[in-house]
Specification:
The chain has about 475 residues and is α/β, with parallel strands linked by helices. It has 12 helices and 19 strands. Strand 15 and strand 16 form a beta hairpin. It is globular.
């Protein structure tokens, strides 16, 4: 059995039409996978955001609590846990390679390829598609950039990430030049190259719909056909932006989701064309979501990471022969669980890991493999929040500071699924129980001790353009 793992960055779990939680999103190919596969309704990241999630995904070992002093020179941003895979932790690709699989990686998630990172361990063939966000891919004449198409004074000011991204994507001619299309074109090539090299493992890591929200215009216009401002807020806008600007940013994000969905459809078509779909296990996941003003903010501010839109992940599996088609799983799973689940399905042995095989959930043999989940979110510096989530409650705090600054919050998910009312003061016993669970997880009483070392390093574009005059651009 082949395996295709698709990891999407910043893809909200509710942005799949067939999930029934977003009345406007258009995702026909993910909808097909929901019909033909298994959708997990309570999947959450264990350590987030980007690199932390992927380490647990490909090793089965938790990233949170964030620990260690690793060489991170050349890596940015300076977030806790933002470092390489530990050398003593075998990766999914290494394990499968040793088990006789041809292994491949097609990705534009540039953080995975920064100096000192080693996410290509065990990959027999990998393709890094350059150009996302502040990937230090291209320089160029700054005078050639027209920032007026993407910025507006008082709404979106020029930023070094804007500069690097616009340099990277200069010269695009059509839809197939957009980065998600390039990633999935590479994945299709891998499938065609490996028709005779079965079984194979293909990891497709697509950075979209992460900001900048920059799909071809027609995809955004599906959701906001009346935009006529002459510029696109692809890097977002201030949280206090008016409703018209918010609507356009949401349209750009939703358009990015729909554009990514189209690329997934292209890959499904390639697998069908090669007569490989029914001997291939497909897993689609995301590393986290983002706030679209659900709680008054845009993006992934660490103080908003306690809420479901950020730390919930998309998790969807399609089995060969459409086995288990149409199932919706209510029990909790997390990203460290994918490693042991996949390897047991494939009959490949591995060393003990933190993750738990969740196939008993899929097969209906149990209703739960976790009675609660713990998520840690790193926002750089002291900005680390942890959540303890049950089906009834969501508790969050910063576990590394004194009680007065801990910001303990509790949400009653039955009465308040949108997590808008902090009821901690009225449920002290529940708060104490959740705090106890977190302390047991961390192995110490709160405030816990930070056991990580963060090395600060700036994005190269921030350094080389520091003397540039943005007013001239």
């Amino acid at each position: 059995m082949n395996v295709v793992l698709i990891c999407l960055d910043t893809y909200r779990a509710d942005c799949v039409a067939a999930a029934g939680r977003n009345p406007v999103i258009k995702t026909p190919n993910l909808d097909r996978l929901v019909r033909e596969g298994v959708l997990f309704d309570n999947a959450f990241g264990e350590g987030q955001p980007t690199i932390q999630f992927r380490r647990a995904l490909c090793t089965g070992m938790r990233a949170f609590p964030f620990t260690g002093d690793y060489d991170t020179i050349g890596c940015w941003p300076p977030n806790a846990g933002w470092h390489k895979i530990a050398p003593e932790q075998p990766t999914l690709a290494e394990t499968l390679l040793a088990g006789g699989y041809a292994t491949g990686l097609c990705a534009d998630t540039y953080h995975m390829f920064k100096p000192t990172m080693n996410f290509t361990r065990g990959i027999a063939s990998w393709d890094f598609i350059r150009g996302q966000e502040s990937d230090n891919y291209r320089t160029g004449p700054l005078s050639a950039l027209d920032l007026s198409k993407y910025t507006k004074k008082g709404v979106v000011e020029p930023h070094y990430i804007h500069i690097q991204y616009l340099l990277n994507v200069a010269g695009r001619q059509g839809e197939m030049d957009y980065l998600p299309a390039k990633v999935f074109t590479s994945a299709i090539r891998y499938v065609n190259d490996n028709k005779e090299n079965r079984p194979f493992f293909l990891w497709v890591d697509c950075f979209d719909p992460h900001e900048p929200f920059d799909p071809p215009a027609e995809y955004a216009n599906m959701y906001d056909p009346d935009w006529d401002e002459g510029w696109e807020p692809i890097h977002g806008v201030h949280d206090e932006a008016d409703e018209k600007l918010r609507r356009r940013v949401k349209a750009l994000y939703y358009g990015s989701c729909t554009f990514v969905d189209k690329q997934i459809g292209r890959l499904l078509g390639a697998l069908e064309g090669a007569k490989l779909l029914e001997e291939t296990l497909l897993l689609v996941c995301s590393d986290h979501g983002l706030e679209l003003w659900d709680h008054g903010a845009l993006h992934k501010n660490v103080n908003k990471c306690k809420y479901r839109p950020n730390n919930e992940i998309l998790a969807l599996m399609r089995f060969p022969g459409k086995k288990h088609a149409g199932k919706r799983i209510k029990g909790f799973i997390q990203n460290q669980d994918f490693f042991p689940t996949l390897l047991k399905l494939l009959g490949v042995a591995h060393q003990p890991v933190d993750g738990t095989d969740f196939m008993p959930l899929v097969e209906g043999k149990t209703k739960s493999v976790h009675d609660h989940v713990v998520t840690g979110w790193s926002g750089g510096g002291s900005g680390i929040y942890a959540c303890v989530r049950t089906l009834k409650w969501n508790y969050s705090c910063n576990p590394y500071v004194d009680e007065a600054k801990r910001d303990e919050m509790l949400f009653d998910l039955g009465a308040d699924p949108g997590e808008t009312k902090n009821v901690a003061a009225k449920n002290l016993k529940v708060v104490a129980d959740c705090r106890r669970r977190l302390e047991e997880f961390l192995g110490e009483k709160l405030p816990a001790t930070r056991r990580d070392v963060i090395h600060t390093y700036d994005a190269p574009v921030k350094i080389w353009t520091k003397n540039a005059s943005w007013a001239k651009l």
